[in-house]
Each structure stands twice: as C-alpha cells, then as structure tokens.
Design a protein that fits this description.
Number of helices: 16
Largest sheet: 8 strands, mixed
CATH superfamily of the largest domain: Spore Coat Polysaccharide Biosynthesis Protein SpsA, Chain A
Strand order of the largest sheet: 3-2-1-4-7-5-8-10
Shape: globular
Radius of gyration: 21 Å
Structural class: alpha/beta
Helix content: 40-55%
CATH architecture of the largest domain: Alpha-Beta Complex
Order of helices and strands: EHEHHEHEHEHEEHHEHHEEHHHHHH
CATH class of the largest domain: Alpha Beta
Length: 402
Amino acid sequence: MDKADILVGIASYNNAKTIDHVVRAVDAGLAKYFSAKKAVIVNSDGGSRDGTQDIVKTTTLDHAAMFLTYPVYPAHRISMPYDGIPGKGSAFRLIFQKAVEMQADACCVVDADLRSITPEWIELLLSPVIKGGFDFVAPLYSRHKYDGTITNSIVYPMTRALYGQRIRQPIGGDFGFSGRLAEFYLKQNVWETHVARFGIDIWMTTEAVANGFKVCQTFLGAKIHDPKDPGADLADMLLQVVVTLFNLTGKYFDKWKDIKGSVNVPACGFRYHVGLEPVKVNVKNMLDIFREGVDNLKLIWTNVLGPGDFGEVEAISHQPDDKFRFPLGLWTRVIYDYASAYHKKIMSSEHLIKSLAPLYLAKTASFIMEAADMDHEGAEAEIEKLCMEFEEKKEYLVNNWR
C-alpha cells in the first residue's frame, strides 16, 4: 500500500490482554465512519514478549457482522518492531514516519492498554482534522479523580499558564493530528532524549501549541486503562515528563513570557457522565516518602526552593496524616522554582527531578484527601483553583528565569 488517506497508530508493549479489543475498535471505527477512505492501521511494537504482535496479525475483523455494509477500502494492517531507545516516543516516531511515507492527510494514535475505546473514538479523533482543518486533536476524558495526577498537579496547570491555552489532557496518550504536523514532528531532533519515552505526549502537545498549529480537543468519554497507583510506579514517568516539560519551557521562553491568562480551546464531541473504575491509592505511603525527603533532601530542597519555602515545606510535614494539606501557593512556587533550577542547571537534571518526587507525592496525597468526598465537578473545581494560582504567579517564574 503506497498511499493512505488515514493512518491509525497503536504503540504497544506487552499488551496481549487488551490489544485485540483496541485493534477491532479501531477497525470498526474506520469501517463505520471512513469507509470511502483508504486507511491503514500501524501497530508499532516495542518487542513484546507476550504475543501482542501475533494477536494483531491474526485478529479476524468481520465488518459485516458488526455493520450492514463493508468498507470500500478494508483497513490494511502493518505490525513492525521499532528501533531506537525503547519507549512510547520511539514507537510514535515510526508511526510519524509511516504517515509521511504514505502521505496520510489525517492520523491518530491510541494507547494499546485501553479497555474503554469504542469505534466512535476514531471518528472523534480524526474528524476534526478531516472536516475541521485542525492539525492537533487532544483528548478530553472523564477520568477518576485520582487518575492522571501528574497531569492534574503539574502538566496541565503549567502548560496552561505558559501558553495560555486550556488543553485539559496534554499528556492524554490518544491524539489526532494532520499529515503536515506528523512531518513537522518527524523533522525534530529529539529522538535520543526523554521524548523517545514518556516525554512524547507533552512534547507533541507543546510543539503543536508553540508553533501555531490549529489545536482543539475532543471528548472521548471514559479513559479506562491499566491504572497506576500514583504512589507506587510513576517515578520514571514523572522524570521523563517533567524533564521534557522543562526543556520545552526553556526552548520557548520568548513565546510564553508575555502571555497572560488563558483561553478555552475549541472542543468537539458530546460531553456526558460515565461510570469510572476506582483507582487504588496509598496516602500513608506517599506521606512517609515525603517526610523521609524532608530529612534526606534538606540541602537540595533549600537550594532549589530557598530557605523560606523550605521552612514551609518542613512545617507542613509535621501535620498529622488525616489533616495533611499542601497549600496551592506553595506548590505553585515549588514547581516554578524547580523549572528555574532546571533552566539554571544547578545540578544534573535527573538528580534534580528525582528530588521533586517526594514533594509531588505530598501534593498528590493532599489532593486525594481534599477530594475524598467530592464528586467529579468538585475535584475539577480544585484543579481549576490550582490552575488560576499558576496563572497568577507566572510573573514569579518569569522574574526567576531571568
């Protein structure tokens, strides 16, 4: 197949439990909504050892059983291993490459561990590109209030404050994009950095926004995937996402320094309420790690935050677990101080960002307790307060930067 109108990429690594469902949902979406277009599904696999690739290759897709008509062009399937640093970004690079080679007009990528994907997702991610002329489509999900803690406490408030656009899920994982944006991404020299791994999502979003591509977001319903306990296994992800976020902050200083406030981004899709799976959290574990940090990381934290803010951090560490709160203003200064310290290279980037982890866990624990009895709207209102704090204190970052 030389040319495709549409390309859908699925990056996978040991996703045998879910990949069959994802591939069939993608295929059904292409058949139902884009039957007149040539489409290709590209599974970019990171050397799965659980049979993920075999499942993709042998999934039998019977459109007639699902819909009344066959598509004009059945979606082709290509499954291939990728080279380079193992990680999601390397998988995406191959997808961008295929999109450019096949001169695809519209593309989307979806996570291979999704259990809530439906055929409608494909229409919702691709139609804004095909019909609306958008270059980048970010996802809008209903997520459990304890899911997406890196997004809620760091990435969304900071990107919104910097670039002035309210993209609610800048590291959502499922995106639509135009062929010309795929070409732009492919040309960037970032594939030996954290962008090749978990940094890819924030990189895609920021590059699209900072370079004036036309962006929107689309409501997909529930994001139900293999959930992660924010206190247990997000260390690598935190490092890769935050390093990428801070690198981009340095790269685009001239573009964001004068932006004030933020505006809504066009939203597609129909918003509705969905039932969500609970996310298990261990608040005590988070607070224990934080208090160990107060003892063991005092020199680094004083250096990054200054003695005044370190004093505040130390003071809140003495609160009893059930009363623990991390003030929004203090948290905002912590993130801005870390961004400035990263920019000024006061120590190795890895060492610096790893020292942020106990503070992030403390902020997450605080949010979990504050939001314990809140519904979705109440939890969102808390995140909105944090975003406003980031916007109002932006001058603090600009002054420290210089």
